[in-house]
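User: For a benchmark we're assembling, each entry needs the component sequences followed by a predicted structure for the full assembly. Here are entry 17's components. Please fill in the structure.
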Amino acid sequence: MKKTPYVYLWLIYAFLYAPIVVVIVYSFNKARLSKDWRGFTWQWYESLFSNQPLIDSALNSLFLALCVACLATFLGTLAALCIHRYHFTGKRALQGSIYLLTISPDIVMGISLLILFVSVNIPLGFVSLLLGHVTMAMPFVTVTVLARLDSFDENLIEAARDLGASEAKSFLHVLLPLTMPGIAAGWLLSFTLSMDDVILSVFLCGPGFEVLPLEMYSLVLRSQPSINALSTIMFLMTLLLILLAQFLAHPRKKAKKP
Amino acid sequence: MKRALSLLTVLLLTALFLPPSVPALAAGKVIIYNWSEYIPDDVLEAFTKETGIEVVYTTYESNESMHDKLLIQKGRGYDLVCPSTYFIPQMIKEGLALKIDKKRIPNLKNVDPKLLNQEFDPDNRYSIPYMWGNYGLIFNSALVKNAVTSWNDLLRPEFKGKIMLYDDPRMTMGIALLATGASLNSTKESEIRAAYEFLLKLRDPKNVFDVTAAKNVMVNNHSVIGGIWNGDAQVAMDENSDLVYIYPKEGVPLWMDSFVIPSGADNVDNAYAFINFMLRPEMALRSVEEYRYSSPNLGTLELMDKKMRESRLLNPTADDLRNAVMLNGVGEAKALYDLYWEKFITDAK
Amino acid sequence: MLQNKGFRFFSITTVCIWLGVFALLPNMALFLVSFLDRTDTSFFIPVLTLDNYLRLFAPAFIRILLKSLALACVSTLTCLILGYPFAYLLARSNRRVRPWLFLLVIIPFWTNSLVRTYAIFTILQNNGVLNTLFNRLGLVEGNFSLMYTNFSVFMGLTYTLLPFMILPLYASIEKLNLRLLEAAKDLGAGPVRSFLHVTLPLTLPGIAAGSILVFLPSLSLFYVPEILGGINYRLLGSFIQYNFSKGANWPVGAAASTVLTLLLLLMAVFYRLAGRNEREGGAAALSAPGGQTAPARVERG
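Assistant: Structure for entry 17:
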């Protein structure tokens, strides 16, 4: 490949990364609101770790995201199996609505669920957030798992059955392991979706269960200096998660080449 | 593959065993819904340490959004909220506020009697003052040549596109009312319309209307003049020494935020304990030190250092406040404020 | 395989009930509320009215809608123009470095969008990085601010959403059969012609998916214009949020969201037309690019 086109690649990379780098650098700046450099400090990180409400909300979010990820992965995988394996009336409608949900704006989902919960008197809080986030994340799991299901050889399952594996056994030992990268990817995806969600949370959060994205939202609006530190931490965690995902997708060095 | 599976199992198990939050202590908890940046973390910690009551703390950025959440919940869920003066009559009317038993708040004796028994809640039957302050003009003396003395100075051509005001309907409509010679708590449609027309003259795409960005915008010279709460002004002035805060001659809006216990609160006892704790002079002082608003707590004056005591932002002189008016409920006229405010927001070019 | 009747019944009912209760039902309720009246103490009351839709014809709302559509179109186009050559180069890059280059796109894609919006804020602010840089280079004297302008909102949207354009494009370009291009060349087509007649049509599904993933969030991600634009730049999403969470008017907000839903359906039709043979949706296109199972993430407003 010639050199020149690469310049364009790196320009876009610079565009994508420069702002993030700036935030990381500023997280060590002494100045409170000003953007002048006023010396190095760890104080914003310290203030994060002494902020109990923030830590509580981070734990809440983590707990919520784990629950959401598990439930959404379960439901999403179930939906993918339905679509992949069975023929039933309304299958096309189901498939269509799942694809539609993946692009449906969060704000519409947020306000419509808010109306539902208010109408049937479900108090806002953990439960409303859980139901909302699962509904938001589940279609993505389905789509991810379906892509995986569509990509491998049907004959493997046939072969397993020919070799005398029972239905449960071939499910556990053939189908599930083959689909697992898709399922794991779906799990991670739901986890991040829940951890990042501001829009549904604005509408569905309730007393006593503050979540991290909303705390962050407030910090960003007030351009509190600790947001730089929090952003840096979030960025590093994302990095870690991606490397983990890569590791899951390619357990060994000699993973299949594209 | 095995690795992925076992990892997933581990994560699943963690999810099941991770507690949603710090385990509740024996004394129970108090669920507070308050403005962001309003009670220092160490004060909350001190409260838990002393009483064993766990504080669950959530925040809001506007009276309106707090009121909406409370209305959706029909007053249940939260144990303590902190609305501004003019929201209190509405909340009382809607049955969202619990009648307060003053005997249970002995520290109420520390509160300045001048700030009690206000028009929005006579005899403080539903609300206990937490913080108060004023809303004056801030400008950048390095970038503003001629003296600034009044709200009407905002109309000067040199400030076109360089103004910062809050996106708070009552506060911003309020200064427009003062500037046009009306009362801060006007209920007359003609006056409210005149105020709206005054604000329209300030409608420039480069002007900022944002309560949360206010400090930042002033410190970094995005705007050179604007209306601001005294506390925010002080924080901004600490960062940028060119900034000056004045009390405009047409009048100064006073604001106050008070603790209100929602009617459906589950932990009423703990809410009382918390209010009483916050009315201690030392605790009130911590909030003042951190956020630079004035405290209605007379006890804080003795504890303050000289610099703070003499700060005219924190403790304005009687002369500074000669034209000051407390923001009050406007009853039915609230609909007019909402109407003209929305018109103002959406009528952008 | 999985012909077990019990499992079949269980899985189909669970999925259908969940989607019925938490997706279909709320949307129907939302649509209903858009025809209801309200009072000061109730968010909606069972009195039918068309007023909410009539209010959408007020010049104020029309302005918001047009502004939102214009910004969304410009952002989508910019992402496409920036993203297409990038995705092309990426898909055609050296096989050994490609996974690493790809990883570099995935990282911002997964990074919290609030964090990235805030990052843009830091850059554009008065005295911000760009300001200082320009001063140092002697390009501009003194302070200037790009914040609270059409430009800052546009920058914010483009920056946050660019990866969502690149990934579907990459997926469809990567799948492109090189032999088709060679065939075109053998048949005498120049680079421009073979691009227009072979590459472009074959990557249309990617273009469609990417455009949807940028266009719809541009309309509805309310925090981007809120942080970078202030009230001068309230867009469709901000309007809905204002009506639903700041004591304004639920039914009017619901009516405005119907506009968004109509746009969504329009886009879905457009996508089906663009990629009839493409079974997987935009998200799926992202989920296994180049045989990697790097999980996809989709930003939605």
